[in-house]
């Protein structure tokens, strides 16, 4: 009877050892591959805000590379109204929601936060001149 109990204990210890060793070897490749840090949501920096000024000469920036979560502020510094909106004109449906919904008067701003990986072409809904066309490239 005593022999059975001892051999049972030995088996239990053996199984526990196997489990511990198994979980360690399971972790080992993970730590070796994480030598090159991969960005995690917690490691990402705070969202940025980018400014696009709308002037009588056109846009201060026509092509903008941003990250998901970043915001773009369009400020009209021209004396006439401008209406930033996503393409295509006139429905603005490529990036739904990216639309000031009215013409901005001088010194008025419109901000939009981009929440998905996408390229959003935009234009001035009130002016078909190509100098008011641009695109916002949103990446992870
Ligand atoms: Cu339009």
Detailed description of the structure:
Strand 1 and strand 2 (58-59) form a beta hairpin. This protein folds into two domains: 2-38; 42-139, Immunoglobulin-like. It has one helix at residues 2-33, and strands spanning 49-55, 58-59, 63-67, 71-76, 84-86, 109-113, 118-124, 134-139. Helix content is 23%, strand content 29%. Residues 8-18 and 24-34 have low confidence and may be disordered. The strands form two sheets. Strands 2-1-4-6 form a four-stranded mixed β-sheet, with no helix packed on it. Strands 3-8-7-5 form a four-stranded mixed β-sheet, with no helix packed on it. The protein is of the alpha/beta class. The termini are far apart. The structure holds copper (II) ion.
Q: What's the topology here?
A:
Layout: H1 2-33, E1 49-55, E2 58-59, E3 63-67, E4 71-76, E5 84-86, E6 109-113, E7 118-124, E8 134-139
Parallel strand pairs: 1-4, 3-8
Antiparallel strand pairs: 1-2, 4-6, 5-7, 7-8
User: What is the total number of structural domains?
Assistant: 2
**Which cofactor or ligand species appear?**
copper (II) ion
Number of helices: 1
CATH superfamily assignment of the largest domain? Answer: Cupredoxins -  blue copper proteins
CATH class of the largest domain: Mainly Beta
Low-pLDDT residue spans? 8-18, 24-34
- According to DSSP, the number of beta strands is 8
Q: What does the average pLDDT come to? A: 82
């Amino acid at each position: 009877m005593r022999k059975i109990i001892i051999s049972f204990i030995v088996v239990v210890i053996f199984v526990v050892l196997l489990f511990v060793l198994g979980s360690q070897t399971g972790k080992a490749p993970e730590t070796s591959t994480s030598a090159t840090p991969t960005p995690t949501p917690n490691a990402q920096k705070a969202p940025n805000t980018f400014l696009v000024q709308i002037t009588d000469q056109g846009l201060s920036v026509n092509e903008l590379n941003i990250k998901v979560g970043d915001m773009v502020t369009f400020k009209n510094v021209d004396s006439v109204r401008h209406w930033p909106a996503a393409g295509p004109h006139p429905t603005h449906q490529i990036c739904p929601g990216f639309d000031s919904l009215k013409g901005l008067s001088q010194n008025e701003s419109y901000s939009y936060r981009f929440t998905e990986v996408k390229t959003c072409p935009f234009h001035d809904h009130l002016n078909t001149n190509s100098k008011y066309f641009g695109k916002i490239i949103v990446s992870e």
